[in-house]
Amino acid sequence: MTPASRPSPPSGAFSSRRLISVDDLSIDEITFLLNLATYYAGFLQRSDPAPGRLAGRTQINLFFEDSTRTNLSFELAGKKLGADVINVPVSASSIHKGESLVDTAQTLAAMGADVMIVRAKEEGLHQKLSEILNCVVMNGGAGAFEHPTQALLDAAAILSEFETIEGLTIAICGDIKHSRVAGSDTTLFQKLGAKVRFVGPADLMPDNNQFADVERYGSLADGIANADVVMGLRMQFERMGDGGADAAQGYYEKFGLSHDTIKLAKPDAKIMHPGPMNRGVEIDGALADDPDRSLILRQVFYGVAMRMACLDAFVTRGE
Ligand code: NCD
User: Does 181 contact ligand 1 (Cβ within 6 A)?
Assistant: First the structure.
């Protein structure tokens, strides 16, 4: 494709300087980010160099919890846009000498960060950092609470398959209680007009006062009936405390996603999963790998495109 025939990025200003929660985003901002992600997806698909929107900027990835997809796709996204990207080796940092997370973040910001991507489990930390640091702060995952860029990339992956999210029925299955992805996805999909359902055993459902308007199902057959999209989740044992491993007992027999059980959803329903997957625990490998059914690798692809969009929008368009 010649440069002249390349699509233009969406126009418009973007005034936000932090991405902490899906709740912070207006519909206009969400639409802008989805359009910008589509624009960047084009560069990735054509293996074309993207514009160096972040050239000369410093991006610091500060992940206090494990991550493969989020950390590496933020790294790749920043590099594709020309940023100097630093991944903080947390396990070898001064956190182990007793330094607080806030002090570590402040120290890194003082090195001249333009944007810091933070993953941590402490409630309220991202908010606090966004108030005290003189750089853009993005939430790369906050405990069991929020994962806004995952919600945005999931919406982009759905839109690569469906014309609109409005009116879709999206069933989220499994360990919803401990899943920041389920929380952020539900908020975003509802904002975009989807009907979200929760499906799983009662002890893996969020408290009744959270997402009170979402229908809950204790039966997979009822919960995914007529669903357009079925999303599996990992059992997040690390957040369950003692006895958590019991949650997996008998789960697959009742709620496991496979070619057999997905027949209960719409005939052309798509499967999603934020990863990491545990094959045979919440999802059968053959279904996860079926390109006619599974959007799982497309979610990963849009992870890079959407994080390019977020970096561009929050770092360079909010000035
Ligand atoms: C998830 C996360 O870390 O919240 N993964 C991701 O970011 N793609 C889901 C999980 O840990 O199960």
Answer: yes
